[in-house]
Design brief:
The chain is mainly alpha-helical and 190 residues long. The protein is built from seven helices and two strands. A two-stranded antiparallel ribbon has the order 1-2. The mean pLDDT is 86.
Length: 190
């Protein structure tokens, strides 16, 4: 299914190169996900700022829009929901059974609410100079970075855990579906 939608995927990425976006580039975390955020009682500590370990150092040192890290955390929420659902149902039911759809709803709801809260708080707290002033430009950046991360996750699972490849494939399918999850979160914020 994803191979048949290759042109749809490329069209999302082309939205980024077809327009002039004004966005500040800074040194970002580069590997920001739930595993890099440690809850320490009343606070959260972010760890491991060396970037994505499999990337060359020169690439990790590149300045990028901070929304890339935001999208990475949003994908982490989706991944946690999908992985949790997958672990719950892996041995209990056959793939494609109706029960899986019933279990999906709470996981999907958690992911959407958590993502909306995270994005709302981020956009309320961030220096406005670090993000595009246009909601359309903001949406394009988040959309592209979400897809970039999902494609990366697919490659990661193919290399390290082929049995989990369904999780990023499911994420890519959700991201390519309309309405778009990032756009939903942005619309809910405004």
């Amino acid at each position: 299914e994803l191979l048949e939608r290759e042109q749809d995927l490329l069209a999302h990425f082309h939205r980024l190169v077809r327009r002039r976006l004004v966005a500040t580039a800074i040194r970002c975390h580069g590997d920001y996900h739930l595993g890099q955020a440690l809850v320490t009682g009343a606070d959260v500590a972010i760890i491991d700022f060396e970037g994505e370990p499999i990337c060359p150092l020169a690439e990790r040192r590149l300045k990028r829009p901070p929304l890339r890290d935001v999208a990475s955390m949003l994908r982490s929420f989706a991944y946690a929901a999908d992985a949790g659902q997958w672990e719950q149902t892996e041995d209990e039911i056959e793939p494609g059974e109706v029960v899986r759809a019933e279990l999906e709803s709470p996981a999907r709801n958690w992911q959407l609410w958590t993502s909306a809260a995270f994005l709302r708080e981020y956009l309320d707290a961030v220096d406005p100079q670090l993000i595009p002033s246009s909601r359309e430009d903001l949406t394009v950046l988040i959309d592209v970075f979400l897809l970039e991360k999902a494609v990366y996750q697919l490659g990661h699972e193919l290399r390290t855990r082929p049995s989990w490849v369904g999780i990023p494939l499911r994420g890519l399918r959700h991201l390519l579906a309309a309405p778009h999850p990032a756009r939903d979160r942005l619309d809910a914020r405004v």
